[in-house]
Amino acid sequence: MFANRFSRLADDALLAAVAAGQHRAFTEFYDRHLPGVLAYFRARVESADVAFDLAAETFASVLASASRFDPGKGSALGWVYAIARNLLVDSYRRRAVSDETRRRLRMQPVELCDDDTARVDSLAAIGAAQLAAALNSLPTDQRDAIIARVVLEHSYAEIAATLTCSQSVVRQRVSRGLRNIRCRLENDS
Amino acid sequence: MRRDATRALRRELHKAAARQARLGRRRARRVLPLAVVVMIAASGAAVAAVGGSILGYAPDSPDDPVLTSPTQTAAPGQFSRLSRADLAKIRRERQRRAPVSDAHRWFAALRVPSSAAYDTIYRSSRGLISARATDREICIQDRRTEHGGWSSSCAPTVVARTYGLYVIEQCDSNAPHPQRRRIAGIAPNGVSEVRVERQNAEQASAPVRNNGFILITDEPIDTIVVGPARRAIPPITC
Fold it and tell me: Is the pTM of this model over 0.90?
């Protein structure tokens, strides 16, 4: 009953529900975003268990600070990835993954075996595939612009020269494409 | 049968969320009576303050100027208050229109894994430096040989090309003193040597090869010099 009720809610409504004390909303949020968050970390760190630890700390931080999320300042998805990025940078600096929030929330450590690392990898692949599917659903001009700019990180000037159009046209295609992807990801979730 | 790790994490998060919710309700029960008391006290203080200021600014005689207010008063019907639903609708629409500003974070998943994307630029008995460069950002990884492990750092390309980019190993609390400091990274084109100083006296130097260098020296040092760029290094803290 609860799963159905929360599965219809948008991300920001789920976080608002968590902040209001409806803890089951957080399970839905976790199920929805675990593959994406694992895909994000798996592309940046070398081992699956480090990616899993970072994901665990990310979700613990989201839970601990759900009441501070302000939908007026940006999307819930962007907020979650901002937390993820901060934890990643922090772990690079300290050369260790923090478990501060998990300990503060009195969460038990989760041990991983070989099957789990394989599962982490497969979930990360699902997350990347969702993103790739959203990218493939775009019109060709928007998809090419996003791949050139966001994935391959070419400059607008280079892309404009390759596509023989102005920089402002490229910027517009990237902006529209990203907006469409975001709508698609939010609707899918 | 063993529960898989993602489910175990889900269960732990669920329990933590339930604890948080219980804690929140308990806090609300404690805070509510206190808030009522504070509100009563605050309203009393506000009435006293307003009364005091009215009395303080009241004209003493008919010759005093008439008090005016800069506040504009809107005529009835000039504006209407938006309902919560309308405000939420406007917010949703604004979000829908806004382009995604943090797209590069999402798309990290589509890039090749970081270890594969890095090219080796410097290798010696002390370690290995690899780098990944785009027109916006340069990242380096420093892999140590003496006790394993790695460090990583990124900087905007413009900054790295001008000042270089390096990672500084902070300290090892288990190591004997004096501590040794390891600095590994890349130097701008044309720089052939990197040196470290203490009170303007050179302590150690390392040659730059293929833009990469690894310098290991004893503490204390306070400055690193990479070409024309000098940078103060904070003292070691364990």
Answer: no
CB pair distance less than 8 Å for B152 and A179: no
pLDDT at B194: 92
Chain A residues whose CB is inside 8 A of the B8 CB are: 110
Q: B79 is written with which tokens?
A: 């504006």
Q: Which residues pair with B229 in a beta bridge?
A: B226
Strand partners for B216:
B182
φ/ψ of B218, rounded to 5, equals -80, 155
Task: Residue A178: name the closest of A148, A140, A150, A158 by CA.
Answer: A150
Q: How far is B65 from chain A, CA to nearest CA, in Å?
A: 45
Residues A124 and A54: beta-carbon distance below 8 Å: no
The helix/strand/coil state of B35 is: helix
B5, A110 Cβ separation under 8 angstroms: yes
Question: Per the CB < 8 Å rule, is A59 touching B9?
Answer: yes
* Most A-contacting residue of B7, B27, B104, B107 (CB-CB within 10 A), to test interface: B107
* pLDDT band at residue B29 under the 50/70/90 scheme: low
Other Cβ atoms within 10 Å of A119 Cβ, number: 19
Contact call for residues B134 and B197 (beta carbons, < 8 A): no
Query: B165 and B186 in contact (C-beta within 8 Å)?
Result: yes
Interface ipTM above 0.85: no
- Inter-chain residue contact A119 with B25, CB threshold 8 Å: no
Nearest to A30 among B13, B104, B149 (CB): B13
